[in-house]
């Protein structure tokens, strides 16, 4: 017998009705039986107890048959239904937008599209710009029998497939209020790593505030002269920064809170691509320049 709550509840109610009718027959209370309205036709003919048993058993069988028919698909895996768990035709109402043929699969379907169409339901017509041949958020523009990609500022190439090279500037400067130690010659030394951490925080905050598109800073070398250093400042390709602007910004910030009151001596900035001389100020120039 099915082990589910609806069946148990209904069988319980039938049993209650059955017991009520049985007791009424045994006591000869025909009037009460008529009021229950369970089996009016049988009651009218003075059905005996055995007949009542047969009728209730018959009704229970009828109920179970209908219950099985209505819940048969509940035991089927997804994509199947009915008494025999037959495969559901998922292509029944699928047209594939009129541009393909539907292929029924277990618990789903696949549209096999005609040429020039694609998509879940073959709803999209392919063209030179559809789907978009431009990479990295580039915009496709039709040009007669061809197309052109308008790239975002960060990318270039026919399909915007190449990232534009970042701008890297090499900065060489001295910090006159610091004392050089021979340990700074080794970039892996713990003293040097501590200095790099301190200076990275200072100059990263400075460049982020002064210039849009700042990416990172990498220290390459330390040398005597109070403490001198050479580092690379990297910026996005879209940044409008150049060596002159970096030099001028460092000169203005010299000895101020923008550089955490770091006093700079010599400042040299080179973009690594120029054939001319780097932008340079001699030792003490920036400090004297700021003092007027």
Total number of helices:
7
Task: Tell me the overall shape.
Answer: elongated
- List the secondary-structure elements in sequence, H or E: HHHHEEEEEEEEEEEHEEHEEH
Mean pLDDT: 81
Helix share bin: 25-40%
Radius of gyration: 44 Å
Number of strands: 15
- Please give the order of strands in the largest beta sheet: 12-13-11-14-15
Low-confidence stretches: 39-44, 282-292
Provide the structure class.
alpha+beta
In short:
With 292 residues, the protein is an alpha+beta fold.
Give an overview of the whole structure.
The structure is a single chain. The model is unreliable at 39-44 and 282-292 (pLDDT under 50). This protein is 33% helix and 25% strand. The strands form six sheets. Strands 12-13-11-14-15 form a five-stranded antiparallel β-sheet. The chain is an alpha+beta fold. The protein has helices at 5-27, 30-36, 40-44, 49-71, 190-210, 243-253, 285-290, and strands at 80-81, 86-87, 100-105, 108-113, 117-118, 124-125, 139-143, 146-150, 155-156, 162-163, 167-175, 214-224, 227-235, 264-270, 279-281. Residues 165-281 form the SEA domain. It comes from Acropora cervicornis. Disulfide bonds join 113-122, 151-160. Keywords: Disulfide bond, EGF-like domain, Repeat.
List the helices and strands and how they pair.
Elements: H1 5-27, H2 30-36, H3 40-44, H4 49-71, E1 80-81, E2 86-87, E3 100-105, E4 108-113, E5 117-118, E6 124-125, E7 139-143, E8 146-150, E9 155-156, E10 162-163, E11 167-175, H5 190-210, E12 214-224, E13 227-235, H6 243-253, E14 264-270, E15 279-281, H7 285-290
Antiparallel strand pairs: 1-2, 3-4, 5-6, 7-8, 9-10, 11-13, 11-14, 12-13, 14-15
Helix pairs in contact: 1-2, 1-4
Domain SEA: 165-281
Domain EGF-like: 87-123, 125-161
GO molecular function: calcium ion binding
